[in-house]
Structure formats: C-alpha cells, structure tokens
Amino acid sequence: YYRGATLLLSNCNNRPPVPGTDGPPAVCSPPTPSQRCMERLRSSRAKLLDRYRQAGERVYGPAAGALLVQEVMELEWQGLQESPPDPDELAVLEEIQQELILQEQSVIEEYERSLQFDEECLNAMLDGLDASDEVICPVCRKNRLTVRSNLVFCQCGLYIRTQVSCGMTEEKLRSLLENTVTEHSHRCFHNPEFTVTSGMEEEASLLMSCPVSLNLINCDIWLLAAGLGGTCQSWCLPFLTL
User: Does the record bear Metal-binding in its keywords (predicted)?
Assistant: First the structure.
C-alpha cells in the first residue's frame, strides 16, 4: 500500500541446506527497526482511521490530519531514538508520514463535502416548506390537494365541488381543516378520520368522523366540503352529534 513496502518482505531466510552439509536451514533473523515500524503502522491503520473520524467532529482542515498522524508517528520516533539512527529508516518514516497526512486530509475533505451537501439539501427543503401553500389530502395523507375555483381534488380520487359563493382557495381550505380538527381535539384526544361520502343532493362531501364516536357521547361527526350553497362561513357545518 505504501511506497517502500518492499521493506515488509519476510526477513526469514528459507534457503535449503548447503549441499554436502547436514546443517538445518538458516534461522530467521530478528526484524529490523524499520520492519517493526512498518508492521506497526500497518497494524494500526484501522485504529488510525477510527481515531481520525472521531476527532474529525472536533478538528477540521489540514491541521487535523497532521495532528493525528503526528501522534502516531511520535511513537515510532521514540522507538528509533532507542537505537542508532538509520538514514534509510528515517527517510521511510518521513515518506510514510507524508502519505498518511495526504490520505487523511482527503478523508476530511470528503467528509466536509458530504456535510455541506446535507446542509444544502436541508436548507432547500426548509425553504420549500416555508414557501409552499400546499395542503395535504386528509384522506390519503400523502398527495397534495388541488384547489381550482370551487373544485377540490386529489390523485387518490377525492373530487368535491364546494359550490360556495366566495370561491375556495388552498389557504381557506387549510384553515377550515385545521380549525375543524382543532375544535375536535378540544373535546376528544383521538385522531379523526376523513372519508369521501355522498351528501345532500348526491354531491360528494368530505366527512370527518371520530373512530370512537359510536361509543362516546358528545363526539361529533362533521360534514366538510359538502355541496352546499351559501357563504364561506356555512361551508363547514356540524352534520350529526351522537
């Protein structure tokens, strides 16, 4: 993985016995400081990445990579101080240190780009919510309700002609639904359910009912968006009280 990885080749001399002798093969020689250093760096690679990711939440930028790599490399420098300095070993360690710094810096840059992308997506979503006047269909609870003059319809099949004298808008529809649900919540802690039914003169209506209305007294059933004439204020009327 690293340049200079040829130093990691086995130091075991597995040559066969010299012909004409009965002696055993040569015994493996002890690893050199350079080999110990390289092996230690390889074995600590996963730990280094974990420590770097954890520290990435507190430290950002090129200084963070240098800081963590320095912490790991200091252990190797201390080990080398106990033995006579070897210019080749020092050169290898410096090369490894630079490669680690560059790689960890790329990890941090990728992490920062990911954070920036997530933040931009979140801001765009919040901006869309702030600027949106959409009303979610209370029947399917997924699609947007579309209001065109006196028509209210949804992809789920809801289609209601309001027939109100002052016209219907998404803002009025949202206010009507919110006020009706809020008024119900003052008397009952259960969530109401909405269905499409036939009302007066066979006009489709949006019916809000409580799932416990058959068991509890004073829990209302409301008829919404019925094909009723009159003013906007009469557009939402209590249909039946049990």
Answer: yes
